[in-house]
């Protein structure tokens, strides 16, 4: 027999579960001076790349390395100040040792061991060809999928010094990206013309993003932070030709940029 119990609800507040999208910084070195230099190289000319995004500092890459012995020298207050210069708001830490976590807590961060950090997915094995007995699917109510933001489309050539950022979506460029110009997208980048400047896809860590161009001859290409500059020549079968750039996990655990020609 069910029993109904009287209860009182607060009139001024409610407590609900919430999900907060986070940016993750995978810290691979305790050398903050070098980190400052590389952040300046990567984001120094993009002051509006981040927009006060909450950030979790992932220390797991430091574990098992020589840098793990430098845990007492890792100044979390200085690290947080450095990140705030780029409009990032560090709020949590994960993956560190007990001493690192204690130092982070002392600096005002919280411990978030259960925070999930997106990483490149390993190639999946081919599905088995064993026969499968068909099943009659149960009827389900049709739910329309959420509408993704449309791609940003640029019709005019991009000159040296110009920069375009497609935040949260793909970028389509219908004209030439000249040397010194920069195209950035959180998703894919499509250039239906020569790509001779810089192209940065998956800017916020989307390892599935790709770069497509009808004439691939860039100064720099980058996907999810893995980059290649023009100092390393492209193979002749893709340089100046229609090609795509994608990211693939390597056997050593390090992600690698793969450039494939596009056949007509």
Notes on the structure:
This is Probable septum site-determining protein MinC. Interacts with MinD and FtsZ. Belongs to the MinC family. It comes from Hydrogenophaga aromaticivorans. One of its GO terms (biological process) is division septum assembly. It is a single chain. This protein has two domains: about 25-110, ACT domain (Alpha-Beta Plaits, 2-Layer Sandwich); about 150-260, Pectate Lyase C-like (3 Solenoid), CATH 2.160.20. It has about 260 residues and is α/β, with parallel strands linked by helices. The chain starts with about 20 loop residues before the first strand and ends with a strand. The radius of gyration is 23 Å and the shape is globular. The strands form three sheets. A six-stranded mixed sheet has the order 5-7-9-11-14-15, with no helix packed on it. α3 (about 100-105) links the parallel β3 and β4. Helix content is about 10%, strand content about 25%. It is built from three helices and 15 strands.
In CATH terms, what is the fold-level topology of the largest domain?
Answer: Pectate Lyase C-like
How would a textbook summarize the main sheet? Answer: 6 strands, mixed
Question: Looking across the biggest beta sheet, what order are the strands in?
Answer: 5-7-9-11-14-15
As an assembly, this protein is single chain
The residue-averaged pLDDT reads 82
Domain Septum formation inhibitor MinC C-terminal: 153-247
Subunit structure: Interacts with MinD and FtsZ.
Biased composition (Pro residues): 124-139
Pfam family, one: MinC_C
